[in-house]
User: Fold this.
Amino acid sequence: MSLAQIAAENANCRRCPRLVEWREEVARVRRASFAGQEYWGRPVPGFGDPKARILLLGLAPAAHGANRTGRIFTGDRSGDFMFASLHRTGFANQPTSVSIDDGLKLKDLWIAAAVRCAPPANKPTPSERDNCLGWTVREVHELAHLRLIICLGSFAWDAALRLRAALGHAPPKPRPRFGHDVLALDGEPLPLLGCFHPSQQNTFTGKLTPPMMDTVFEHGRSLVH
Assistant:
């Protein structure tokens, strides 16, 4: 099955009642600054370069970001910070991501969220996380060149370990701990590289700076070359 077919199926998923209710309520009520826009209000599939060697895994769509635009990390502050870094490090053709048709192209990178629907308070439940795992598994099966997963935050790190297990890779013992620019499972299929999530909580406080994020992406590239 093609990545486009998987995306079309993913966008019609209604498996998690709480997430369906929330994403559709947000799309209906809308934020005042986006009141004139039509919200996507559905699950947000992964996107990027079909020949990608790196999977960049995030947490979930932002309620007024990807849940509005239909493309992960597009139209919110976290994405603004991240795509500027991806452009500086050569993974994106432009430094901004504002809409699904803005001309953004990724090189050697596929971006996906561990949970595909915007969750209330940005906190998915374990069952919602597990329900979404299959979508990432299906995308990865079509991404024949993948060699590394960059995990944005500890939630994505945990999801990546579950993804590896679902793909048939033996669970590591001891379980590797998340850390910024920490590499785990080097020498094994689909090693993990940690990066603090580009949330405003991290970027506004200086826990994650532009040079810090650039360093992770540059490290990632060195690992797949």
The radius of gyration is 16 Å. The mean pLDDT is 96. Strands lie at 47-48, 54-58, 109-113, 148-152, 183-184, 192-195.
